[in-house]
Mitochondrial carrier domain-containing protein (Suillus discolor), 487 residues
Amino acid sequence: MNSNPSLRDLYNPPSSAWAFIPPPPPMQDARVPAPAPAVTSYQWTTRPAHNSIFDLSPSLDLSEPCSLDVSLLLRSLVASALLQYTSTALVMPLEVGKLLLQIQWIPKDAPAPSSQIYEEEEEEETLSDSTNEDESYFADPAASHTKYPAPKPVDDQGYVIRTSVLEDGTRPEYIIPVGSMNGTWDMVKRVATFRGEGWLSLWKGLLTSCIHDVLFSNVQPLVDSLMHSVFLSSAAGLYRPPLLLPVASHVITGFLLSPLDLVRTRLIAQSAMQRYRTYTGPFDALRQIIAQEGGIRSVYFHPQLLIPTILDNGLRPLLHILMPTLIAPRLGFGPHVAPDISPIAWAFAQVLGSVASLLITLPIETVRRRLQVQTRGTAKALRTCAETRPVPYNGVVDALWHIVTEERSDLPIKRRSKPRKQQTEHAEENDSDDLFAEKQDESRWLRNTGIGQLYRGMRMRVGVSVIVLLLTTFGGQQEVDGGWAEL
């Protein structure tokens, strides 16, 4: 009996070269000619093909020396900077109009002024109609009962004291008249046509706003990643990160960039007229603020600047995260609404959440702008193009209280060119002779409260949220910016 052949004789060591070569054909009879090979062999090469994806890297082989394309890098940076600058410039007029509405002070107890010119003209018409020329010629001037306007109060130097912000005669030439703007677009048109401002004033603080936006969009993700790496372990990667970390990253970033936000507010609020301008640019503004208002420590840690910064930068991300999760289950689309399951329902919930968040964030933003306009230390009062409160606020709570209790919200206040003529003997007692006609009755609550002053720019923000909803619904996007823009 023959033994089984050993498997050791059948072993064939593999080739060391990795090649796509077909196996040789089986042995055939020598009388039959072998057919020509139909498959072409391809040898595997170690050098990869050229990377043609945007030509960002000439080669994917890490063993080869890689050189930096400086021209490509510079072109990318210039294109990114121009894109950011253009996008900021497009929304800057609306930002200027909103900020000027937020800092504008309109007291409710300001007495409406009387026009001395119109009173004198009406008095002359009354005398010419009721008296004879001969009688007026022989009349005793001392015995005349003609009523003349009461003299206006003056100071020690003889200048007329301004008793109302509604008076045009005593209003400084660099201040835009109050009471004629009810919305952001109205303020934009008023700034463009005002003699002391003009169209170029709609882009005040553009460079500072662009730098602030670029730094915020790059520093905040870096701070957030750093905080996640420090406070979260690698094992917690599958779990949802805590709510505190994104809120804290926004607060820290807003705190670090708060001097830029202060400079931007001052540049927008100041008058554009050369003789009333305080700062010539962002660097000059930052230098004067540090030199005259307590140094860099006061810029960061002054209570009137630090507390509004923390509240403004903390409430925005907190409400941005919480509001959609609270509103989404109540939309009727089911108990669980998520961006990947119901993108349209989630986008609608985010828009509603952003609108509801404005009821809380807009008053805080308004108070922050008013406190930023106030100067401190040895600095002179800022000459703003909008009417501001002559007495400074003491803090966030004090500003909220005085805005609600001492200001009015019934805007716009209509002007009329001339008071009505007196028709009867008692018309002088009944006619107020005011230059301003109240559009709404004084008994209405808007006339007696300043709550509307806390929500200037609300309609523009709601319009932006609706546009974002439409773009998300019809554009197929799954991410909605629920009011994070400066607008």
Remarks:
- The two ends are 97 Å apart (CA to CA).
- The mean pLDDT is 76.
- The beta strands are 19-20, 42-43, 414-415, 436-437.
